[in-house]
Queue: 2 jobs
Job 1
Amino acid sequence: MEKLDLYYDRVDGNIYHEGLASEIPDRISQPLLQRRVESIIGRRGLKASYNTGKSYMKPLLNTLHQKNKKESLDLMLKHLSIRGFGSLKCTELKKDYMKIQVNNCFNALPQPKSDKKVCFEMAGILAACGEVLMGEGMDCMETECITQGNPYCEFHVFKHGLRIKEKKDAEIKPIPEKEENLVKHNAFHDPYKGETIFEDNSSLILPQGYLAHYQRELESLLGERPVRDMEYILTKKSSLTTANTIKNKKLAGYLHTPTNLLLREMVKKSRMRGFGVPLIQEFYPGKPYLRLIVKNSFNAHGYSKARKPVCYRMAAQCAGFGTALFNKDMDCIETRCRATGDSCCEFRVYANPHRRTQSGRSHKRSIQEMANLTSL
Ligand SMILES: [Zn+2]
Ligand SMILES: [Zn+2]
């Protein structure tokens, strides 16, 4: 295991890895979302994963460019491994072609065995590597996948012959000068597995704005409303699972009350992972209501003039924690958002009068409703 340094900025809530603002989701959450998006809208949802990997990792990979091609590539592959994407190796490098083997590919992990290749986000990232390396338009295709029983995933990166289009919203925020505001956190990298452990979880270190960019890619495919509903329902479910796990730890002898513990953990988790700084504004014990503001919400990065609030995943996280907190089905609405020009985002968590509990059946039904909605 190698030690990695992460720095948390107490003033603006950014978390920095190697001098660049980052967000650190669980290793499994992004591929899990990809799988669920695919189950709802079909294979076309995979385009959002590919495009995000390609356009959002490219500015970062550009900073690693060296004169020597081989050195450049080695540096990029090592860097991707440190970020937790897997253990990567180049097995063939030509003028306008390369072959990359990925052991323990993050993209394949939560997938059941299938007859399809699933690593579209990784393919996008490797296409970006190819473009930085060759200086021309490249694409990437997965040819073997762990999900098909292969010991590793294999990718072919090749020239597509079109002009390169650069996306303007993918920018890298470098570390600020004021060191006195920075708090150091540790993460640990396993170079053999290509995994990074942060806060006891295998995690991905993504450039800040990556997850919001994925949301915009989905929006460009499906429109705002279906994406809002989909991200909200899916994230609420996983956030509720996380919150319930924390709550059960209480039974193992924690001193705080479950309510305090959950609120503290929600705030801590969000800050540590670079998702934003939540501040509780209204909370009365016994009343199922919570109002909070979130500074620097990860969900709003890169949006400049949105007409409506865009932090669906942040709202869903609050709803999931709220549900565990109050022991009843809670929902969350975002009432102010940085994406629409406010200084921070504001969320209100309230008891949903129409649903008593979020049972498995009602969840299945909402997924079905969404499938109908998105098949327009
Ligand atoms: Zn794969
Ligand atoms: Zn917002």
Job 2
Amino acid sequence: MTHCPHCKHEFEYNHLLPLGWRFKIGVRCQKCHETSYHAASSKKKIMLSVFIYPLLLVIFQAMGLALGWSALIGLCLLAGTLFLIPFLVRLSPEEEPLW
Ligand SMILES: [Zn+2]
């Protein structure tokens, strides 16, 4: 799990979970009360993983898998990624622009 860039306190899973769908918000540390933000490099990696899912749907369709099954598999992978984000996220002391 990632640490606070200000005091190195380790964040809990449930405090980092909203970063999966809301890049603009910060996470307030329970120990030092400073706000940390999603690092730009981390945002890019997560956005890339989200954009891969439509590509997977196309690949599944090309393999002859039914659209319903393709969509279900894609949604399961997307949900899995959102719940893994607290393990993948890196925080920055200041909000960084994406590009
Ligand atoms: Zn802290």
